């Protein structure tokens, strides 16, 4: 029995000795895989790793993050360095700016520095945490200042990247200039994501901002209170289609010492074909990447890539329509000092048979929908610039008066939009 315990102890000791080396090897491979995945999945920034020096109990490496301006194609590079500690089941990466930026970082964070860490496990779990201490910076020459409270962000990634839980907490910030003051209070984001297939993700999210206030010289102070967005994307039992809905709410807007609210906007997508939606998303991403990569290059080649992406987008839109979908705003509700603006806008496309799909040439042909929006008449009367835009529509009969409100009703069918009895032919699309 004693020999058996000795053998077991020796085996455990051997595992403990070998484990950090094995974990270090797996960590390096995982980081290289993450780098490749990040660079291939989006065109806006590129991650580069250099000089990965792996030892027994730890490692260190340097790298560069290159961010590209999507409008101009200009690139901005930021260097970083990382220290890695190897454990028995995982590693901890501690990222920091290069030493040559120490003086600049010291000016902004004289006491405590930002901390970015990545904790990995060999079974495919990773946790990213970013802590940014409070900041107070003032420019004595211009009088400009920036104050920011301590913020915290965390992303926990499991199932080898197929599931992620994200949390961001930012209590607030204040920006001051001689003629401007902007304050932000209590920003919070919670997001759960689960990979379905290709470019399609499911999940739910909740973002909120307690207050945003903008005060400019010679202008009335503008304040937004309790802004929130809640969204959820789900799939049916067989994973062939997805439904998505989002609700945007704003409790109150205050301008020139007058407050009005609440405001609510609901957006829904229903019955989106998963494969077609994935194809559309991939084509849009490739089109954006072609525009960024082709900046300053061969314009003919870029045009060819853009045309190929556009053809893919057209086909994906046709496939989405052929499999049936609906989208729109089931609820629009915006408060004004003179009464609410409310209504709904919905568009649908029926599911087509195989024969109908083969004969389908455009999306618009089978689209149907309805529009119903009303607003207070006093809002138009009190704002001449709005009245100038609405008056021609009233004269044409597209907007009708019902008591103290103005109403616009429309129906989409057979390639035509009927607005209060005025039929407008619509051009075919796709």
Automatic annotation (TrEMBL):
Origin: domain of life: Bacteria
InterPro entries xref list: DUF945 (IPR010352)
Record protein name field: YdgA family protein
Species in which this protein is naturally found: Marinobacter iranensis
